[in-house]
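Posting for a labmate who doesn't have an account.
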Amino acid sequence: MLDLYGVTMTEPCTHARQATIRKVPRPAAGCEDCMKIGAPWVHLRECLTCGHVGCCDSSPNRHATAHYRHTRHPIVSSAEPGETWCWCYVDERVLG
């Protein structure tokens, strides 16, 4: 079992052990890329490798997934207040 930010995961993916995991501040200020272009976002995700804050796939620009495709950083966490789950892009599964 792995405890990540107070969330106990019974079967973590291997990427959770390999990644440099960062603590996620909640709420995040906003999607870094959307703020640069003046675009709206729905929900925020933070890369647990580098701290990049991007918007979710329900947002028009899907910057969190675009960040993963560009960097191959495997895990994001919700940066929304009250949410503590993570997502592994490689294994396509929720952690926690």
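Reply:
Got it, the structure tokens are right above this. The CA atoms of residues 51 and 77 lie 10 Å apart.
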